[in-house]
Amino acid sequence: MNLRLSYFSLMICIALILAACQPAPESPGLTVAAAASLNNAFNEIGSVFTAQTGIPVAFSYAATGTLAEQIRNGAPFDIFAAADTARIHELAMQGFITSESQVVFAYGEVSLVIDPERGLNIQSFSDLGHIPIDRFTIANPKIAPYGSAAQAILENARLWTQLEEQLIFGESVRQSLQYIESGEIPAGILPNSLLQNSMLTIIPIDDTRYEPVAHEAGILAASPNTSQAERFIQFLYSPQGQAILAQHGLTPISTP
Asked: Mean per-residue pLDDT for 130-153?
Protein backbone atom coordinates (compact mmCIF):
# COMPACT_ATOMS: atom_id res chain seq x y z
CA MET A 1 0.00 0.00 0.00
CA ASN A 2 2.80 2.38 0.87
CA LEU A 3 4.49 1.63 -2.43
CA ARG A 4 1.23 2.33 -4.29
CA LEU A 5 0.76 5.63 -2.46
CA SER A 6 4.34 6.58 -3.19
CA TYR A 7 3.83 5.79 -6.87
CA PHE A 8 0.67 7.92 -7.09
CA SER A 9 2.35 10.74 -5.17
CA LEU A 10 5.25 10.63 -7.62
CA MET A 11 2.87 10.75 -10.59
CA ILE A 12 1.05 13.73 -9.11
CA CYS A 13 4.33 15.60 -8.58
CA ILE A 14 5.43 14.88 -12.13
CA ALA A 15 2.09 16.10 -13.48
CA LEU A 16 2.34 19.32 -11.46
CA ILE A 17 5.87 19.93 -12.68
CA LEU A 18 4.88 19.37 -16.31
CA ALA A 19 1.90 21.68 -15.95
CA ALA A 20 4.12 24.39 -14.50
CA CYS A 21 6.47 24.05 -17.44
CA GLN A 22 3.74 24.52 -20.03
CA PRO A 23 3.82 27.97 -21.70
CA ALA A 24 1.03 30.35 -20.75
CA PRO A 25 -1.80 30.31 -23.29
CA GLU A 26 -1.40 33.03 -25.88
CA SER A 27 -3.79 35.95 -25.96
CA PRO A 28 -6.46 35.46 -28.62
CA GLY A 29 -5.41 38.85 -29.97
CA LEU A 30 -7.19 41.64 -31.78
CA THR A 31 -8.60 42.02 -35.26
CA VAL A 32 -8.49 45.61 -36.50
CA ALA A 33 -10.36 46.85 -39.56
CA ALA A 34 -8.28 49.77 -40.80
CA ALA A 35 -8.52 52.22 -43.67
CA ALA A 36 -6.04 51.42 -46.45
CA SER A 37 -4.30 54.76 -45.83
CA LEU A 38 -3.16 53.37 -42.45
CA ASN A 39 -1.49 50.27 -43.91
CA ASN A 40 2.15 51.27 -43.42
CA ALA A 41 1.69 53.04 -40.08
CA PHE A 42 -0.47 50.33 -38.52
CA ASN A 43 1.84 47.51 -39.59
CA GLU A 44 4.58 49.12 -37.51
CA ILE A 45 2.25 50.05 -34.68
CA GLY A 46 0.97 46.48 -34.53
CA SER A 47 4.50 45.07 -34.28
CA VAL A 48 5.51 47.46 -31.50
CA PHE A 49 2.22 47.00 -29.62
CA THR A 50 2.52 43.21 -29.72
CA ALA A 51 6.16 43.31 -28.61
CA GLN A 52 5.23 45.43 -25.60
CA THR A 53 1.95 43.77 -24.58
CA GLY A 54 2.10 40.22 -25.94
CA ILE A 55 -1.26 40.83 -27.63
CA PRO A 56 -1.25 39.72 -31.29
CA VAL A 57 -2.93 42.05 -33.78
CA ALA A 58 -4.28 41.13 -37.21
CA PHE A 59 -5.24 43.89 -39.65
CA SER A 60 -7.79 43.95 -42.43
CA TYR A 61 -7.17 46.89 -44.77
CA ALA A 62 -9.68 48.28 -47.25
CA ALA A 63 -11.54 51.48 -48.09
CA THR A 64 -13.35 52.93 -45.09
CA GLY A 65 -16.77 52.52 -46.73
CA THR A 66 -16.06 48.90 -47.60
CA LEU A 67 -15.07 48.09 -44.02
CA ALA A 68 -18.13 49.88 -42.63
CA GLU A 69 -20.37 47.69 -44.77
CA GLN A 70 -18.55 44.56 -43.62
CA ILE A 71 -19.16 45.59 -40.01
CA ARG A 72 -22.88 46.02 -40.71
CA ASN A 73 -22.86 42.52 -42.15
CA GLY A 74 -21.37 41.05 -38.98
CA ALA A 75 -17.63 40.95 -39.69
CA PRO A 76 -15.90 39.88 -36.44
CA PHE A 77 -13.61 42.88 -35.92
CA ASP A 78 -12.64 44.29 -32.53
CA ILE A 79 -11.68 47.81 -33.67
CA PHE A 80 -12.55 49.97 -36.65
CA ALA A 81 -9.98 52.63 -37.57
CA ALA A 82 -11.56 54.75 -40.29
CA ALA A 83 -10.30 57.57 -42.49
CA ASP A 84 -13.28 59.70 -41.53
CA THR A 85 -15.53 60.44 -38.57
CA ALA A 86 -18.91 60.19 -40.29
CA ARG A 87 -18.94 56.41 -40.69
CA ILE A 88 -17.74 55.79 -37.14
CA HIS A 89 -20.49 58.04 -35.80
CA GLU A 90 -23.10 56.39 -38.02
CA LEU A 91 -22.07 52.92 -36.87
CA ALA A 92 -22.23 54.10 -33.26
CA MET A 93 -25.75 55.43 -33.81
CA GLN A 94 -26.70 52.05 -35.27
CA GLY A 95 -25.28 50.20 -32.26
CA PHE A 96 -22.29 48.58 -33.97
CA ILE A 97 -19.65 50.68 -32.16
CA THR A 98 -19.63 51.77 -28.53
CA SER A 99 -20.09 55.53 -28.49
CA GLU A 100 -17.74 56.07 -25.54
CA SER A 101 -14.84 54.49 -27.45
CA GLN A 102 -14.84 56.92 -30.40
CA VAL A 103 -11.54 58.83 -30.72
CA VAL A 104 -9.83 60.86 -33.43
CA PHE A 105 -6.16 59.85 -33.33
CA ALA A 106 -4.56 61.51 -36.38
CA TYR A 107 -5.13 63.64 -39.48
CA GLY A 108 -4.01 62.91 -43.01
CA GLU A 109 -2.98 65.06 -45.95
CA VAL A 110 -2.60 64.32 -49.65
CA SER A 111 -0.18 64.95 -52.50
CA LEU A 112 -0.17 64.92 -56.26
CA VAL A 113 1.78 61.78 -57.21
CA ILE A 114 3.43 61.29 -60.58
CA ASP A 115 5.25 58.40 -62.22
CA PRO A 116 8.68 59.91 -63.02
CA GLU A 117 9.10 57.49 -65.93
CA ARG A 118 6.24 59.11 -67.86
CA GLY A 119 8.06 62.39 -68.53
CA LEU A 120 5.24 64.68 -67.39
CA ASN A 121 6.54 68.24 -66.93
CA ILE A 122 4.53 68.95 -63.79
CA GLN A 123 6.27 71.05 -61.15
CA SER A 124 3.27 72.13 -59.08
CA PHE A 125 -0.38 71.28 -58.60
CA SER A 126 -1.31 74.30 -60.73
CA ASP A 127 0.43 72.67 -63.72
CA LEU A 128 -2.12 69.88 -63.67
CA GLY A 129 -4.57 71.95 -65.69
CA HIS A 130 -2.08 72.61 -68.49
CA ILE A 131 -0.43 69.22 -69.08
CA PRO A 132 -2.33 66.55 -71.06
CA ILE A 133 -2.78 63.36 -69.00
CA ASP A 134 -4.35 60.25 -70.51
CA ARG A 135 -5.34 58.71 -67.15
CA PHE A 136 -5.52 59.95 -63.59
CA THR A 137 -6.36 57.97 -60.46
CA ILE A 138 -8.01 58.66 -57.13
CA ALA A 139 -9.72 56.28 -54.74
CA ASN A 140 -13.45 55.80 -55.28
CA PRO A 141 -15.05 58.83 -53.57
CA LYS A 142 -18.16 56.81 -52.69
CA ILE A 143 -16.26 54.50 -50.34
CA ALA A 144 -12.89 56.14 -49.68
CA PRO A 145 -12.64 59.43 -47.75
CA TYR A 146 -9.33 60.27 -49.42
CA GLY A 147 -11.12 59.87 -52.74
CA SER A 148 -13.69 62.38 -51.54
CA ALA A 149 -10.92 64.76 -50.53
CA ALA A 150 -9.29 64.36 -53.95
CA GLN A 151 -12.59 65.04 -55.69
CA ALA A 152 -13.09 68.20 -53.61
CA ILE A 153 -9.58 69.38 -54.51
CA LEU A 154 -10.17 68.86 -58.23
CA GLU A 155 -13.59 70.51 -58.11
CA ASN A 156 -12.30 73.52 -56.18
CA ALA A 157 -9.50 73.89 -58.73
CA ARG A 158 -12.06 73.55 -61.55
CA LEU A 159 -10.26 70.49 -62.84
CA TRP A 160 -12.88 67.82 -62.14
CA THR A 161 -14.74 68.29 -65.41
CA GLN A 162 -11.48 68.48 -67.35
CA LEU A 163 -10.18 65.21 -65.90
CA GLU A 164 -13.44 63.33 -65.38
CA GLU A 165 -13.15 61.20 -68.51
CA GLN A 166 -9.56 60.29 -67.61
CA LEU A 167 -10.35 59.28 -64.02
CA ILE A 168 -9.74 55.70 -62.91
CA PHE A 169 -11.09 54.95 -59.43
CA GLY A 170 -9.19 52.60 -57.15
CA GLU A 171 -11.19 50.46 -54.75
CA SER A 172 -8.90 51.93 -52.10
CA VAL A 173 -6.02 54.39 -51.98
CA ARG A 174 -3.70 51.42 -51.90
CA GLN A 175 -5.00 50.23 -55.27
CA SER A 176 -4.62 53.71 -56.76
CA LEU A 177 -1.01 53.75 -55.55
CA GLN A 178 -0.41 50.38 -57.19
CA TYR A 179 -1.79 51.72 -60.47
CA ILE A 180 0.89 54.43 -60.48
CA GLU A 181 3.74 52.27 -59.14
CA SER A 182 3.08 49.68 -61.87
CA GLY A 183 3.23 52.33 -64.60
CA GLU A 184 -0.39 51.69 -65.58
CA ILE A 185 -1.52 55.22 -64.69
CA PRO A 186 0.82 58.25 -64.77
CA ALA A 187 -0.58 60.37 -61.94
CA GLY A 188 -3.09 60.68 -59.12
CA ILE A 189 -3.87 62.17 -55.73
CA LEU A 190 -2.94 59.97 -52.77
CA PRO A 191 -2.49 60.19 -48.98
CA ASN A 192 0.96 61.10 -47.70
CA SER A 193 0.76 58.17 -45.27
CA LEU A 194 1.43 55.74 -48.15
CA LEU A 195 4.23 57.75 -49.74
CA GLN A 196 7.09 57.50 -47.26
CA ASN A 197 10.24 56.29 -49.05
CA SER A 198 8.35 56.25 -52.36
CA MET A 199 10.32 56.54 -55.59
CA LEU A 200 7.44 58.42 -57.24
CA THR A 201 7.46 62.18 -57.77
CA ILE A 202 5.49 63.75 -54.90
CA ILE A 203 4.09 67.27 -55.09
CA PRO A 204 2.42 68.42 -51.85
CA ILE A 205 -1.03 69.97 -52.16
CA ASP A 206 -1.68 73.01 -49.99
CA ASP A 207 -4.13 72.01 -47.26
CA THR A 208 -6.03 75.26 -47.81
CA ARG A 209 -7.51 73.46 -50.83
CA TYR A 210 -9.24 70.81 -48.67
CA GLU A 211 -9.99 69.66 -45.14
CA PRO A 212 -7.31 67.29 -43.78
CA VAL A 213 -8.76 63.82 -43.34
CA ALA A 214 -9.57 62.87 -39.74
CA HIS A 215 -8.78 59.29 -38.72
CA GLU A 216 -11.11 58.02 -36.01
CA ALA A 217 -11.25 54.69 -34.21
CA GLY A 218 -13.93 52.91 -32.26
CA ILE A 219 -14.44 49.56 -30.52
CA LEU A 220 -17.12 47.26 -31.87
CA ALA A 221 -19.99 46.60 -29.47
CA ALA A 222 -19.78 42.87 -30.26
CA SER A 223 -16.05 42.62 -29.54
CA PRO A 224 -15.16 39.96 -26.95
CA ASN A 225 -11.80 41.67 -26.39
CA THR A 226 -12.82 45.08 -25.10
CA SER A 227 -10.02 45.50 -22.57
CA GLN A 228 -7.37 44.59 -25.14
CA ALA A 229 -8.99 46.90 -27.70
CA GLU A 230 -8.86 49.74 -25.18
CA ARG A 231 -5.13 49.11 -24.70
CA PHE A 232 -4.56 49.31 -28.47
CA ILE A 233 -6.39 52.63 -28.74
CA GLN A 234 -4.48 53.95 -25.72
CA PHE A 235 -1.28 53.01 -27.54
CA LEU A 236 -2.40 55.07 -30.55
CA TYR A 237 -2.64 58.04 -28.18
CA SER A 238 0.67 57.38 -26.45
CA PRO A 239 3.75 59.44 -27.34
CA GLN A 240 5.25 56.35 -28.99
CA GLY A 241 2.14 55.62 -31.04
CA GLN A 242 1.77 59.24 -32.10
CA ALA A 243 5.45 59.34 -33.10
CA ILE A 244 5.01 56.30 -35.34
CA LEU A 245 1.97 57.87 -37.00
CA ALA A 246 3.99 61.04 -37.63
CA GLN A 247 6.87 59.05 -39.13
CA HIS A 248 4.39 57.67 -41.66
CA GLY A 249 3.17 61.02 -42.86
CA LEU A 250 0.15 61.48 -40.58
CA THR A 251 -0.40 64.53 -38.40
CA PRO A 252 -0.64 63.42 -34.76
CA ILE A 253 -2.93 64.98 -32.23
CA SER A 254 -2.05 66.16 -28.73
CA THR A 255 -1.86 63.30 -26.27
CA PRO A 256 -4.71 63.68 -23.75
From this structure: 96
